[in-house]
From TrEMBL:
One term under GO cellular component: plasma membrane
Membrane-spanning segments: 29-48, 54-79, 91-112, 118-145, 157-179, 191-210, 256-275, 281-301, 313-332, 338-356, 377-398, 404-425
Compartments where located: Cell membrane
Gene3D superfamilies (UniProt xref): MFS general substrate transporter like domains (1.20.1250.20)
Membrane-topology descriptor: Multi-pass membrane protein
CDD domains the record matches: MFS_ShiA_like
A GO term, aspect molecular function: transmembrane transporter activity
Organism for this UniProt entry: Neomicrococcus aestuarii
Limits of the Major facilitator superfamily (MFS) profile domain: 17-429
Protein name per Swiss-Prot or TrEMBL: MFS family permease
Pfam families: Sugar_tr
Length: 451
């Protein structure tokens, strides 16, 4: 599948930009999701005291997992400001190094039996660093592509960095699956899981080198020059909150159910299937298959967002996402691998309807001089109350009730919130980023009192 382009050379350049953006994004999400899988499989027993109930350790591990989400808005604020001032490329090089170092060090941590409570304390600190880096990564990666893309195909091209997310998750899942399959349980818990964290060093170096050879978009350079020449205008978090509060709130609403759905499908599913005594290696293998489908779904949805619009696809995703748990958990209960993976694939297809269009939608909400800060705030702040809490809430519901109906209601309520945001969304298919900047400039000039 291809998207229209104004010239072959432009399309070649776009492919290079997309490749560079995806290379680093795969690395960063590999590291981030590796923690999620390890939290469900390893950290509960290796880094937290045992209470006699296995789910208590998992919940404690998911709480540290949530620390990364809490850190993400801080990273979005800090790196959004840096990205709007110094450029998307510089910020992306910095964040990839940060998250890689933190992940490798996680693989070196002693367990609670070796150093006591220093083990979870150090784990939390490194998770915080991971979260900060990822908070700055997403905005830069998607904007690097979105700002280079033609107006008529921005949805397609900007969806590719989103597709890097399931690719990073796939890589993390495959590495853990291989280690879990070739090692017995004792060896896997003792050292096997650590190999996946150490491998981050290799992929970080590759991603960093690839990103060195890209440049910021001309529209960013123009906006940067305007800010430098016109001292009366500014950029960054404070400016975007003051000028575009509705855009930030809309972006947060759009993100809410999408984020919750994803982490229930890919993280809580591991816990739920484990409670059914489904083999761990089998669960990881099924998730790996589902991530491949998700990787395929995202650019397809991105392509159609340029044809039928961002809004109708997002509305469909919000409605369908709210129904997923009602049929997915009964499918899990069959313990049939084919039916289980089908349920996960359907969940990720619903998720893609919302996720694929986010870069283009959010990029088209803000002018260039404050776009990095705007998209980072809208995207990352929501993760504190959405994705970070979703596995904790779902696992707690399972522990307290022994069932999944409460999880279904939780997901349904989240979907209503996102549906309201999607219905309020202004269709921006084909919008010109230059015109958005011009409108903002005209509005600013009208607000200046004449003497």
């Amino acid at each position: 599948m291809s998207a229209p382009s104004s010239a072959p050379s432009q399309q070649t350049g776009l492919k290079r930009i997309v490749s560079a953006s995806m290379a680093g994004t795969v690395v960063e999400w590999y590291d981030f999701f590796l923690y999620a899988s390890a939290a469900a499989l390893v950290f509960g027993t290796q880094f937290f005291p045992q209470t006699g109930n296995a789910l208590d350790g998992v919940i404690a591990a998911f709480v540290t997992y949530a620390v990364g989400f809490v850190a993400r808005p801080l990273g979005g604020i800090i790196f959004g400001h840096i990205g709007d001032r110094l450029g998307r490329k510089f910020t992306l090089q910095l964040t990839i190094v940060m998250i890689g170092v933190a992940t490798v060090l996680m693989g070196c941590l002693p367990t609670i039996n070796q150093i006591g409570y220093w083990a979870p304390a150090l784990l939390v600190f490194l998770r915080f660093v991971q979260g900060m880096a990822l908070g700055g990564e997403w905005g830069g990666a998607v904007l690097l592509v979105a700002e280079h893309s033609p107006n008529e195909s921005r949805g397609f091209w900007a969806s590719w960095p989103q597709a890097a997310v399931p690719l990073g998750n796939l890589l993390a899942t495959v590495v853990l699956f291989v280690m879990r399959s070739v090692l017995d349980n004792a060896a896997f818990l003792a050292w096997g899981w650590r190999v996946a964290f150490w491998l981050s060093a290799v992929v970080v170096v590759v991603g960093y080198i690839i990103r060195k050879h890209v440049q910021d978009a001309p529209i960013f350079e123009e906006a940067k020059a305007e800010v430098e020449q016109t001292k009366a205008i500014s950029y960054g978090v404070g400016e975007v909150i003051k000028k575009y509060p509705r855009g930030i709130l809309t972006a947060m609403g759009l993100r809410f159910a999408e984020n919750i759905l994803y982490y229930i499908v890919v993280s809580f599913s591991i816990v739920y299937l484990g409670s059914l005594k489904v083999d761990t290696a089998a669960i990881l293998g099924l998730l790996a298959i589902a991530h491949v489908f998700h990787f395929i779904f995202v650019p397809i949805v991105g392509y159609f967002s340029d044809k039928v619009g961002r809004r109708p696809l997002y509305i469909a995703g919000a409605i369908l996402g709210g129904t997923w748990g009602f049929f997915a958990f009964p499918m899990f209960n069959t313990k049939d691998n084919f039916i289980i993976v089908l349920a996960i694939i359907i969940g990720l297809a619903f998720h893609a309807l919302m996720y694929a269009g986010q870069p283009s939608i959010m990029a088209e909400m803000f002018p260039t001089r404050m776009r990095y800060s705007g998209v980072s705030l809208g995207y990352q702040v929501t993760s504190i109350v959405a994705g970070s809490l979703a596995p904790i809430i779902a696992t707690t519901i399972l522990k307290e009730t022994g069932g999944y109906m409460g999880v279904n209601i939780y997901l349904l309520i989240a979907s209503v919130v996102t549906l309201i945001a999607a219905l309020s969304l202004r269709e921006t298919k084909g919008a010109s980023l230059h015109e958005i900047d011009a409108e903002e400039r005209a509005s600013r000039e009208r607000a200046v009192p004449t003497v």
